[in-house]
Amino acid sequence: MTDRRTQLARNLAQVEERIAAACAAVGRKREEVTLIVVTKTYPASDVRLLADLGVRHVAENRDQDAAPKAAECSGMPLTWHFVGQLQTNKVKSVVNYADVVHSIDRVRLVTALSAAAVRRGRELDCLIQVALDAESGDAAGRGGVAPDGVAALADALAEAEGLRPAGLMTVAPLAGPYAGRPRATFERLREIATDLRAAHPAANMVSAGMSADLEDAVAAGATHVRVGTAVLGSRPRLG
Ligand SMILES: *Cc1c(COP(=O)(O)O)cnc(C)c1O
After folding, report:
1. What local confidence, expressed as pLDDT, does residue 238 receive?
2. Does the pLDDT at position 24 exceed 70?
3. Is 73 left (phi over 0), alpha (psi -120 to 50) or beta?
4. Residue 106 Cβ contacting ligand 1 at under 6 Å
5. Which domains can be identified in the chain, with CATH numbers?
6. Rounded distance from Cα 40 to ligand 1 centre (Å)
7. Atom of ligand 1 nearest to the CA of 102
8. 211 pocket-lining for ligand 1 (C-beta < 6 Å)
9. What's the pLDDT band for 36 if we cut at 50, 70, 90?
């Protein structure tokens, strides 16, 4: 029996090695890529162990789980990322703990999040979630805006008080022309990110890559990888 801390430390070391190797393979500096550990479905006690082991970025995808967990972990030196689909009735809660929201996909959400951030006196970094299956009509309902909607959303974020356009996020599609092609997916995201930076130079985050495909994301220029399973283990269903 290994205890949880030992197990997490071992998994983290393996993920760290993968990221370092992926950076080296394409001549990137290790510091160009930030590891975000996705702690959804796992308890606050795991978040504490991860913080102890040096993790500084964690992500959650459901407000009802994230809010109490973040409250329990409030003393820890962590940046909280919200990566799930976000309903406007949840923004008031999310602005209490989230530092970065990865799932901006409609102007109505920008408006609601801005109002909530201002009321709470907070400044949030916001990533636009790009659905690369939207153009083919195969969007799986996992959120995200089609590539041709990115520019307008970035302008809306730039004008919204309490929010900053910080970059792009995507999840590798399960259907459509990009299904099963993570490298092509992330290369396409890179192109969209280059266009975005031309208009908003500070919007330079590219959030892409998960446990299964982080090497492809790093090769295609990702600045942030979101890793759950490879650090914490397989989730029980409903992840
Ligand atoms: C769960 C989740 C991840 C992590 O996925 P793993 O395959 O467990 O690494 C990354 N991004 C988002 C948006 C998620 O919901």
Report:
1. 55
2. yes
3. alpha
4. no
5. 4-232 (3.20.20.10)
6. 8
7. 13
8. yes
9. very high
